[in-house]
Write a structure and sequence with these properties.
201 residues, alpha+beta, Nucleoside Triphosphate Pyrophosphohydrolase, four-stranded mixed sheet, 3 helices, 11 strands, 37% strand
C-alpha cells in the first residue's frame, strides 16, 4: 500500500523568519526627576529608578603598586554600609568648582596623592565601565600608576579619614580574607585590580 504525500499549496507555504520585518523598538522615555539632595538626585526612566551624582558623574580609580611590589589600598568607613571598607584609591572627576572639565588622568593623580601620599611618574588608562549600572549612571575610569614615589602622608582631605595599606601582591588574597573576618567589607573591584597588578609584574 503506497502512502500519498500532500503538498502544501504555494500560497500556504511558511515564509522565512527573516522575511518578517522586526518591529521598531520603543524609544526610551526621558528621565524624570523625583528627588534632589545636595550631592545626589533620584531619577526615574520608565519604571526604573536610579541615582545620579549632581557633580562629577565619573570617577577615577587607580591600581598602584610600589617599587617593592606592594598593592596600595585604602581603608575608610562608608556610612551607606556602616562599616570600614577596603578599596582602591579613587575619586570623582570634575567635581571641583571651576575644574568641571578636568581630565580623568589629572583626577587620578590628584586622588592618588590625596588619599595615599604617593604620586606617579606615569598614569595609564586601563579600561572604562559602569560602577553599578542597576543603581547609578556613574562611569569609572580605571588607571594603573607607574613609577610611584612617596611625597606625603596621604589620609585624604579635611572631611576624610583614610588609612593606607601596602600589601605585598602575593599576600593580597590572604590579607583581604583576614580583613573580612574582622568585619570589614572588601570592595569587589579590589579583586579585579589584582588581574592588572599581576599582569604587569
Amino acid at each position: 500500500m503506497t502512502q500519498s504525500h500532500r503538498e502544501t499549496p504555494p500560497d500556504r507555504e511558511t515564509s522565512p523568519a527573516s522575511a518578517i520585518p522586526e518591529p521598531e523598538p520603543e524609544p526610551e522615555p526621558e528621565p524624570e526627576l523625583m528627588l534632589e539632595g545636595k550631592w545626589l538626585r533620584l531619577l526615574r526612566r520608565g519604571r526604573w529608578e536610579y541615582v545620579q551624582r549632581i557633580k562629577g558623574g565619573s570617577a577615577a580609580m587607580i591600581v598602584a603598586v610600589t617599587p617593592a611590589g606592594e598593592l596600595v589600598l585604602v581603608e575608610q568607613r562608608r556610612p551607606a554600609v556602616d562599616a570600614k571598607v577596603i578599596e582602591l584609591p579613587a575619586g570623582l572627576i570634575g567635581d571641583i568648582e571651576g575644574e568641571e572639565d578636568e581630565a580623568p588622568s589629572v583626577a587620578a593623580l590628584r586622588e592618588l596623592e590625596e588619599e595615599t601620599g604617593y604620586t606617579a611618574g606615569r598614569m595609564v588608562e586601563l579600561t572604562r565601565g559602569t560602577s553599578s549600572s542597576g543603581l547609578s549612571d556613574e562611569q569609572l575610569v580605571l588607571f594603573q600608576a607607574f613609577d610611584l614615589r612617596k611625597v606625603g602622608a596621604g589620609g585624604g582631605v579635611e572631611h576624610e579619614d583614610i588609612t593606607v595599606h601596602l600589601v605585598p601582591l602575593a599576600e593580597v588574597p590572604t590579607w583581604l580574607t583576614a580583613r573580612q573576618r574582622e568585619g570589614m567589607i572588601v570592595d569587589l573591584k579590589v579583586w579585579s585590580a589584582l588581574y592588572f597588578a599581576r599582569a604587569d609584574r
